Amino acid sequence: MTTETSLYPEDALSVLEAIPAGIFVENADGEIIWANHAVSQLLKMTTDEIIGQNRDQLPLKKTLKLLKLSQPAYIPDRQHDTCMQIDSAEVKGANHAATVYCVVDITELASQSRFIPELRQPASLDPETGLMTRKHIHQELVAEVSRSRRYENPLSLILLHFPELESEAQKTELLKSAAEVLKDDLRWVDLVGQWEIDEFLIVLPETGAEAASQLAEKITANFDRLLPSNEIQVAVADWQKGDDTAVMLQRAEAKLIADQPAQNGLLTG
């Protein structure tokens, strides 16, 4: 003889809340409408702070943990590196649609190099800053320029040039600190990588020149705790019809080397 049991909606939510893996739900507009306690712990935010937000409203270094779907995502952090496995599934009803995400911390497994050694330091990440390498950020820029050339979507990039410092250790610490600032300032769709030894390249999809310039000013202002913002050169270039990747980069690099003093070192055009 078997006994049938019913699981009521409130019971189901209790079960999801108790699962030791991050689970959250987005509606069709990308708004987070439910999250369990494990997600709060991963993001170091309360459930009330998470619900109602879109993922691109969260700081980049936190949002990254929720983006790489169906594959491990290596998340560099100055204090504790993590590796997340994220999977998603769509839920469709008669009057609504939603997406359920499951986030599992697999850091301990990833640290065992005999299982997945490439996750400990992917070739696409710079070992010092945790940002994309020059090769990888260039590949991403090529893809975005190709998309703009095809669909005429707005696209901008920012080059950040840091000053010479007395020692290599000081420069390394500056770049690592600057990378942390950028991870908090940028949207999840934005891309940032190490371009030269003393330069970062930021790729801003769906962003025009004005918005990119405003972001550049915000970034330099947030760098004030690292060093005076007028010591950092910032050049903004937006995609213009007919541009290829090389033309965009040349325009930005020309602004950096041009002798054009500007407030806060910001060079646009």
Task: Based on the model shown, name its key terms.
alpha+beta; 9 helices; single chain; 269 residues; five-stranded antiparallel β-sheet
Write the layout of secondary structure elements.
Elements: H1 9-18, E1 22-27, E2 32-35, H2 37-43, H3 47-50, H4 60-63, E3 72-75, E4 82-92, E5 97-105, H5 107-110, H6 134-151, E6 155-161, H7 168-185, E7 191-196, E8 199-205, H8 209-222, E9 233-238, H9 245-257, E10 266-267
Parallel strand pairs: 9-10
Antiparallel strand pairs: 1-2, 1-5, 3-4, 4-5, 6-8, 6-9, 7-8
What is the overall silhouette? globular
Strand order of the largest sheet: 2-1-5-4-3
Helix content percent band: 25-40%
Overall pLDDT? 78
**Overall radius of gyration:** 21 Å
What is the ordering of alpha helices and beta strands? Answer: HEEHHHEEEHHEHEEHEHE
Largest sheet: 5 strands, antiparallel
Number of helices: 9
